[in-house]
Design brief:
Blueprint: H1 2-16, E1 36-43, E2 51-60, E3 64-70, E4 84-92, E5 95-103, H2 127-132, E6 140-141, E7 149-154, E8 160-172, E9 181-192, E10 203-210, E11 214-222, E12 230-238, E13 259-266, E14 270-284, E15 287-296, E16 299-310, E17 313-325, H3 348-353, E18 369-371, H4 377-382, E19 385-398, E20 401-413, E21 422-429, E22 433-441, E23 446-451
Antiparallel strand pairs: 1-2, 1-12, 2-3, 3-4, 4-5, 5-6, 7-8, 8-9, 9-10, 10-11, 11-12, 13-14, 13-23, 14-15, 15-16, 16-17, 18-19, 19-20, 20-21, 21-22, 22-23
């Protein structure tokens, strides 16, 4: 056990001097007390003149905040729409939600976005109404990664629906900045049925988000015939400064239909390879189920794993697996749990997620590190001390191909159980997930996982 204690000391010292993954909660819509934005918006058919709106922070309670806007004293023409209102937001680990809104009624010549005239709480006559239309929960899903899609609802009676997709980055020029800025582009298909003003409430909206600033441009191409209108809002001025955005690489995609086949060997206990296939067969609100089936080898496994991806990282939230094995693997801890309740290594995912969550940060970057906690759900299940660190992007070759892979190394100590202790190195390829894993166990054996296809 001397080697295990030494390993624990090395990794504990490393963790003490390492930085945790950066908190990115308010990066896409910052809200310091002094923040201001000025937008100019217009509709190609219904606006008689463009309207400038100044947006300020009315209230900030940390994760919940309220923005206020007004067209007063903005130098607008007399025929421009006048508007005053507020919009409330809440930051969650799943993204940015809109919780409330209020304003004066829209201009009388704009389409009515309700089934009747009286008591209509719907409007598209402001920049932030364009932003939350049909997608109040969430307005913006996080983490915002390649392949991200989500559904939302909105409107005063939740009668507006949307499907949104992240469409990649784009250099965009707006009046607020002298030079082009990098924006994350989100495209939404929006549907409203039954309003007097149909089909104005339906169409395609595109939002360009700049990290550290918020939305800098919004276009809404309304449904309809050849005379259908387009509403456009552009950031004219702000005291917020664009920041370098996080990477949008998705190193563990939660995508229905994603399939992978892995081979797993251990130099001492699994000299004949175990081959198993995984399929992502269900995804709901960025939570996914992966099913596993045996292909060949001395272990017969059937099971499923649940993962969720939020701003606090990729987390395993449940596991179900049963197996019959001709190879006897050493027992795992923790000693405090009955032997029948302890986890076993049946699949590569068991090796990948063993110890503590998250498996990966939401936006992994070189030098990010995170560690186990001496209390809580993970420690109760695994009883593992240790930490993980992102080493960087490294080239790795496996039977499935050659990849520039995010490399993560973990030091794990499970007291009294050398097979549950050691150094684990994992390689994750963007858009593919886990492609290789090597665990040098403290008992001297080595487990190796490679992606076959």
């Amino acid at each position: 056990m001397g080697s295990v204690r030494s390993l624990a000391v090395v990794f504990a010292c490393a963790l003490a001097g390492a930085a945790a993954p950066a908190a990115l909660a308010d990066g896409w819509l910052p809200h310091p007390a002094d923040a201001t934005w000025t937008y100019e918006w217009s509709d190609s058919v219904y606006s008689k003149a463009p309207a400038k709106e100044k947006v300020t922070v009315k209230d900030d309670s940390g994760k919940a905040f309220i923005l206020a806007w007004t067209t007063a004293d903005q130098g607008n023409a007399a025929q421009a729409p006048s508007s005053t209102g507020t919009v409330s937001f809440q930051e969650t680990t799943a993204g940015l939600n809109n919780t409330d809104w209020s304003s004066n009624p829209p201009p009388p010549d704009f389409p009515v976005l309700c089934p009747r005239l009286s008591g209509c709480n719907n409007s598209l006559a402001s920049t932030f109404y364009l932003l939350i239309w049909g997608s109040r929960g969430p307005v913006l899903a996080e983490p915002l990664l390649a392949g991200s899609t989500w559904s939302g609802t909105g409107g005063g009676s939740n009668d507006v629906t949307s499907t949104s997709a992240y469409a990649g980055t784009e250099q965009i020029t707006v009046p607020a900045f002298k030079t082009p800025v990098t924006a994350f582009k989100v495209r939404s298909e929006i549907t409203q049925a039954g309003a007097l003003g149909d089909p104005y409430g339906s169409g395609v909206r595109t939002v360009w988000w700049v990290y550290g600033v918020g939305p800098v441009k919004i276009t809404f191409d309304h449904a309809g015939g050849s005379d259908a209108s387009t509403t456009t809002a552009v950031l004219d001025d702000t005291n917020q400064t664009p920041k370098t955005p996080p990477s949008d690489a998705n190193y563990f995609p939660l995508k229905t239909g994603l399939h992978a086949t892995y081979q797993w060997t251990n130099t001492r206990y699994l000299k004949k390879p175990v081959v198993e296939s995984f399929t992502c067969d269900q995804v709901v609100n960025a939570s996914a189920r992966f099913t596993v089936k045996s292909v060949s080898g001395p272990m017969r496994v059937a099971g499923a794993y649940g993962f969720t991806l939020r701003t606090d990282g990729l987390t395993n939230i449940w596991t179900y697996a049963k197996a019959a094995s001709l190879s006897k693997l050493p027992p795992l801890g923790p000693a405090a749990r009955p032997a029948a309740d302890r986890r076993r290594f049946f699949t590569p995912f068991d090796l990948m997620m063993f110890g503590f969550n998250p498996v990966l940060p939401a936006y992994p970057a070189v030098g990010d590190s995170w560690g186990s906690k001496p209390t809580g759900r993970d420690f109760e299940i695994y009883g593992v001390n240790g930490f993980s660190r992102v080493l960087g992007i490294r080239k790795v070759t496996v039977p499935a191909g050659t990849f520039d892979a995010l490399t993560v190394q973990s030091g794990l100590t499970q007291p009294g159980f050398t097979f549950g202790s050691g150094t684990r190195t994992m390689w994750f390829a963007a858009g593919k997930g886990l492609v290789k894993l090597v665990w040098r166990h403290a008992d001297g054996s080595v487990s190796t996982v490679v992606k076959l296809k």
